[in-house]
Amino acid sequence: MITGKTKVVGVIGDPVEHSLSPVMHNAAFEYYGLDYVYVPFHVKKENLKDAIKGSKALNIKGLNVTIPHKRNVIKYLDWIDDAAKLIGAINTIKFEDDGIKGFNTDGKGAVMALKEVTEIKNKKILILGAGGAARAVAFQLALEGAKNICILNRTVEKAEELAKDINKKTGVKTNSGSLELIEKEIKDTDILIDATPVGMYPNVNQEPLVKAEMMHENLIVNDLVYNPIKTTLLKEAEKAGAKTISGVEMLVYQGAEAFKIWTGMEAPIDVMRQSVLKELK
């Protein structure tokens, strides 16, 4: 029941109809009996500044920020956390009396998902893609003590730029190149992360960038695509006997971090995960 006391949080993006965050967060609020509601707001680029000002004026407690606003929104905030400074993008806002605060929980979400199955410290990590998700995850992995990060991308310049940035800002050895180098680089890789949209709904039968015969059984394979739950890449990884992590995990853990920022409480991870899985099935 929504009343005058109900606290409002939400997500802003363009488009926003596909977002699973409302389902996930409302399930968490319901589980704890919290008087909160999570709403999607469709905000176009030209209305971003007004949306942030309006949210504060309407006493909205917090927002998730998705494509295309993650970078542009920073100029309307009063403070951003260290991870967001390094990444140059935010995905979570908290409206407080002393200002509007920005956080990036994307990288943290990916790392928490990985930590369920492996340590990050001293590992060699291969990341495919060099967009926003790849950037958030790569910086967080560097902060967590990865030994070596390799970024391969279709547009080599983007991979080079990201690798240089990580090297400079964190000191972690980061190299880059084209997707042709996958077979060479994967041989001694501990963790493979696909941060490209390959295999994402509706292109569920798209050929994956890495086939089973390129993988080894000690590899951990994490696809950041969460729809479908089991992508063509994860199916190949299973064939190779590698450990797999679905993109659902990063989605859930980044959401759990946002939940904690807004409420000060630990999120009910299982409840959030089940609500997402139910929606995807």
Automatic annotation (TrEMBL):
Keyword Protein biosynthesis recorded: no
Catalyses which reaction(s): shikimate + NADP(+) = 3-dehydroshikimate + NADPH + H(+)
Location of the active site: 70 (proton acceptor)
InterPro entries found in the cross-reference section: Aminoacid_DH-like_N_sf (IPR046346), NAD(P)-bd_dom_sf (IPR036291), SDH_C (IPR041121), Shikimate_DH (IPR011342), Shikimate_DH-bd_N (IPR013708), Shikimate_DH_fam (IPR022893), Shikm_DH/Glu-tRNA_Rdtase (IPR006151)
Chain segments annotated as coiled-coil in the UniProt record: none
Domain Shikimate dehydrogenase substrate binding N-terminal stretches: 11-93
Binding site for shikimate: 19-21, 66, 91, 106, 226, 254
Keyword Amino-acid biosynthesis: yes
Domain SDH C-terminal: 247-277
Pathway: Metabolic intermediate biosynthesis; chorismate biosynthesis; chorismate from D-erythrose 4-phosphate and phosphoenolpyruvate: step 4/7
Annotated positions binding NADP(+): 82, 129-133, 153-158, 224, 247
Keywords: Amino-acid biosynthesis, Aromatic amino acid biosynthesis, NADP, Oxidoreductase
Enzyme Commission identifier(s): 1.1.1.25
GO function term, MF aspect, one: NADP binding
Summary of subunit composition and partner proteins: Homodimer.
Similarity comment: Belongs to the shikimate dehydrogenase family.
The protein, known as: Shikimate dehydrogenase (NADP(+))
Gene from which the chain derives: aroE
